Amino acid sequence: MMGPSHALSGAAVWLSGSWALQHFYDYEQSPLALAVGTAVCAGGALLPDLDLSGKVTRNQGGATVARTFGVFSLFIAEVVEKVSLGVYYATKLSRDPKRSNGHRTLTHTIPFTVLVGWGTTTLCARYGKWAVIGILFFMIGLALRGLFDEWAERAGWVIVTLVSAGAASFTAANLPGDRGYPMIGLAVGVGCFVHIIGDMITRAGVPILWPIPIKRRMWTPISLPDSIALRAGGKTEIVVVRTALTVVSVLAAVGLVAPSVLQKFNLDL
Ligand SMILES: [Zn+2]
């Protein structure tokens, strides 16, 4: 799956999940909390591809997400890729093949999604608003890059960075104290998980069972059989999947916001 589809799937899952919580369990979120959760989940759905590095010194290549904050995020991607490769070699068994880069290894596993979600929640709980601002800044940047890819490409990373910083500080200033923080960690974790599933249905093998050894392999790539899998970047992904994800997101958003709007309208009458 390509960047924008990943980001859209994160947004769609968060919005429809929030709708289900509100509809079946009466769990209501403020419009701001909804917007933050959606943005963070969309950004989280790009996070695993931060292991696709480019050429830092020449400021070239890398996944779209690795270019969000220009050469800075390209450098982070370089580190993530090398660490992932290190973990691959540290845990590989005799039948795992040799690799020269760490793309689609550690960051595409369940333990990683749990660790990132838990780590985010812990940071927010321990360091409060400053951690929240930093995390929101980073995640909103990724979300912008993914959801508005053409705009982000034209605007360049400096503008994307400034917009993310603005949105993050606005959010942190308006988010109520205790309720929003665990939600941010959950949104990052859910986003990462949605990314892994997205890669799996587009023929890309993902080591989702790691660290469970199977037949002397620790990093068994799991994917759908070619006959039913989507082709990454193919017409089906770009047209059908993205349209469906957009429709789901819009319907869920309308379903979430409409009741309170209608209520206000009635009260005013
Ligand atoms: Zn991926």
TrEMBL record:
GO MF terms held by the record: hydrolase activity
InterPro entries per UniProt: YdjM-like (IPR007404)
Alphabetical keyword list: Hydrolase, Membrane, Transmembrane, Transmembrane helix
Spans through the membrane: 130-148, 155-175, 181-210, 239-262
Protein name, entry field: Metal-dependent hydrolase
Source organism per UniProt: Verrucosispora sioxanthis
